[in-house]
Amino acid sequence: MKRTRHLCGLLAALMLVLPIAAGCSPAAASTTAATTAATTAASTTAADSSTPADTTAAVVETTAATGKLDKVTLQLKWLPQSQFMGYYVAQAKGYYAEEGIDIEILPGGSDIIPEQQVYNGVADIGVTWVSSLLKYQSQGWGLTHVGQIFQKSALLLVSKTDAGIKTAADLKGKTIGSWFGGNEYEIYALLEANNLDKDKDVTLVQQDYTMNQLINGEVDAASAMTYNEYGLLLESGIKESDLSVLNMNDAGVAMLEDCLFVSSDWIKDNEDLYVRFLKASIKGWADACADPEAAGQTVYDVDQSVSLEHQIYMAKEIAKLVVPEGFDSTKIGYTDMAAIQQTADLAFKYGLLKEPAVLTEDTVTSKYWVTATS
Amino acid sequence: MRNKIGKIVWPAVVGIAFIVVWQLGLLHKLLNLKPFQLPVPSEIALTLADNWQKALTDCGVTISGALIGMFIGSLIGFMIAVIATFFPKWGYGGMIVITAFNAVPVVALSPIMNLWFKTGMGQKIGVVTVVCMAAMAINAYSGLNKLKPFSIDLMHTVAAGKWTIFRKLRLPNSLPYIFTACKINIASAIIAAIISEYFAASTSGLGFGIKDNLRKAEMAMGWSYIVVASMAGIILYLIILLVERDAIKWHASQR
User: pTM here?
Assistant: First the structure.
């Protein structure tokens, strides 16, 4: 009898506590999502990399028809969202299957590091930022850059206009939010280019994946991607005219972001497989950039963690990065070595790399893109 | 005497052998890892030597947050145990609520505390406080109530009041239990403080250092933080052991 009473008390207490834990914070929800993603990623075994690649279109069609597809796993840098719409569109429209590929897209998360996933063989191909990839390469990780999807930097420092941050020099004495883990170097470059000491002249704090710290005034300037967090601010009801934006491209400190990379060992045996993957992906990206609304819907069908409106907003902004104004849309995925060099130079100058990056065919190569687009 | 030396020598030999195996790369062969994935001990030591000032500052931030949080959490836990002892009918419900709080994982707690506290330190203390309440409440409650029947009978015989029984019998009786709770709490406080820093709005602390460096492929730096964290944990645990040895000499566990 007494035991039953205790049990009832425990249940009542649990009911009291659980909603608090579950409902209180959007950040808590995203953590759960990240953890789930981690589990998914961990439980996925590496695709068989020894499968001989099929070369001719006829053979490809036969394999597609008989259902004998080569398995390829793609590790995203973040949660499923329009940032990666090209791959989702290619998957939804069957472009991978046409190339004889059975694609599996693994979501990323705050503690999923694409470089480590690909090197360890959990995934075959990864999406990451170029600066981060250069860092891993400099530490000895055998990884190769094999395609540049975003042609421009999307990182902004956003502040409310009443903070009075009109130029980078105004950041002096302010609190700045960054996600760190490699996402801070453009900010370091911006500060140093304006003669500000990152340790003395400003306070840098870790930012969570919401924009609450800026909205609540805990930071003066917050990191925001054009395609995601900036949209979140607008969706939260803040007017564009009340926001002041510092753009890394304008400040001349832009580092390249989303690119495709593989393990140098894997690519040796899978050159043709990768070329077919790239072909299908470029087709997906071209479709997605031509019709971002449809692409946003495609991504939303895969993952409903954010609203359809936000996915479409993101898709439109992403299209501007993949095919910027004046960029030839047939060149999607093209690697601009000058931009890579600038990223490498900035990374070295501002302390991400201890030595200048070694840019060779082994670390950054355009040859698969050339084959895929010819 | 020989027995005592053996107690120190054998674990030390095993520890040194492990480090040698690690240094020589046998561990890497066994686990199929490259040195840039898992740095060798000498590299970790050199990195730590180069950055010891920053590592110590970060260690200070984490440990002070952990200790303050542990103190507040243990105090609240003890108060709840006292209330539950004096008012068993409804006080026991409080114990159950505390236990339920203890079940909330740190990864869920940290972002919530971010909403309540503006600084990384406040958030850290908040998380550690919640984590440390349950172990103290449950242990102290046992200590305050698991009395030897003859002693409570004796107290009743001499018509001792509730307060006197508490002061002269319950409180001393609970001391060994409180130290047990402290030993549990010191470990969980450091772990909670480090994990909370993964999510904190600051860039200081061991947790941030471990997360940030491991993410950025600065493995040796990340591992040197891990070494500092475990050293701090061991030292604090030993301090509690020493205090315990001194404080409850009369208890069976110390003879």
Answer: 0.79
